[in-house]
Amino acid sequence: MIEVSNSLSDQLAACFGERITIEEGGTGITTIKVGVDDWQDVAQTLRDDPRFAFSQLTDLCGVDYLGFGQEEWETHDATSSGFSRGVEGLGPGRFNWQERPEASEIEQRFRVVVHLMSISKNMRLRMSTFAADEGMPVVPSLVEIWNSANWYERETFDMFGIVFEGHPDLRRILTDYGFTGHPFRKDFPLIGNVAVRYDEEKGRVVYEPVEIEPRVLVPRVIRDDSRYTADDIDQAANEAADSLSPGAE
Question: Which CATH number applies to 2-66+101-174?
Fold first, then answer.
């Protein structure tokens, strides 16, 4: 598996040169970063070049890097007062829609990740690119190269708001037609924007303002306790069994 991956990296470097950046991670799959302007050309070559023959696109998804690397919990400094008092403000998704954070400090916020498979070569490849504009993320569509990208791109558009230029039918696929926002964006409130319910008097579905207040949940903390070690539990169970045996006094 390692020899195949190294061989693939060498061939990718020889074919594309500085147009791509190759990463060798610990997941056993080669990853390349591609500029958004070269997105379609590199994809076309990966499919048609006999050295690669990546005939199948198995997955496509989006990533939002808003708030990436930011912490919202104080751990060591808050242990004496309890984790519920260790919250540093409101992290991504835990705020009102009117008070949502801006991504002015994020140069590359939205990323598109694609997984490819070459059946004839028995190889897999991860390919990704960043949208040039975080305010209006646009990435060229891959539908003309791999038909399976159709619904994946629609889902990514619906959840992240990434526009795939050239897609034949780019519309929402999971949410309603009148849905506001994109649920997988980090600036989308976890409580949502509206509440939906069926009104028996009106005989239809109605949309109402959300009544839930955004809040930060306290994580469950598991600490080692000598009272509950495996040996002590087994010993207590054996003592209890002995006391219930017919020959016990």
Answer: 3.30.460.80
> What is the per-residue pLDDT across 53-76, written as a single tens digit (0 to 9) for each?
999 999 999 999 887 766 666 655
d(CA 193, CA 190) in angstroms, rounded, equals: 9
d(CA 190, CA 221): 23
The whole-angstrom separation of Cα 32 and Cα 37 is: 15
| Sign of the CA dihedral with 23 first, then 132, 57, and 156 last | positive
C-alpha pair distances (Å), 23 with each of 124, 177, 196? 14, 39, 44
The band of 37, judged by pLDDT with boundaries at 50, 70 and 90, is: very high
**Token reading at 83:** 């984790």
